[in-house]
Design a protein that fits this description.
With 141 residues, the chain is α+β, with helices and mostly antiparallel strands. It is built from three helices and six strands, in the order αββαββββα.
Length: 141
């Protein structure tokens, strides 16, 4: 690597680019073993200096796409929490920050909805009522 290409600070855009290249490099290895690989995001550990990429490797579903257990679980449980299956990965704004719904954990009765803050992908827990209210408010024109 030449000095001109050397990265001295990891921005969100740089982390995305590096992870995309890593994913592409790993795709052939997964394919050789009959598996599929997809990005599971990343999170900044030391802002600007390190990040942790995440990949999900799975046995493919019959249609050849990656099996997403979080999405399947969300579809099964969503109605019990006042949400819809289509709300998985929907975005909403709370406290001036953007979040994305990533799952439901029924073992957390008070805060069952898992979300990630979009800029840094940090995980948070919300009440089901709060998320339903925020989604409804956002849907209004």
């Amino acid at each position: 690597m030449s000095k001109a290409n050397r990265i001295t600070r990891l921005t969100s855009a740089t982390c995305e680019q590096i992870q995309a290249r890593m994913l592409e490099a790993c795709r052939q290895i997964a394919s050789d073993h009959g598996l599929v690989i997809e990005s599971a995001g990343w999170r900044g550990l030391e802002p600007g200096f390190s990040f942790e990429p995440a990949f999900r490797i799975s046995i493919p579903a019959p249609d050849g796409k990656p099996l997403n257990l979080e999405k399947e679980m969300f579809a099964v449980l969503a109605e019990q929490y006042g949400l819809e299956a289509a709300d998985f990965e929907r975005e909403f704004i709370a406290g001036g920050e953007r979040f994305r719904i990533t799952g439901i954990d029924p073992r957390r009765p008070k805060y069952p909805i898992s979300v990630e803050r979009i800029p840094d992908r940090r995980g948070f827990k919300f009440t089901a009522d709060n998320v339903a209210m925020l989604l409804k408010a956002q849907a209004k024109p």
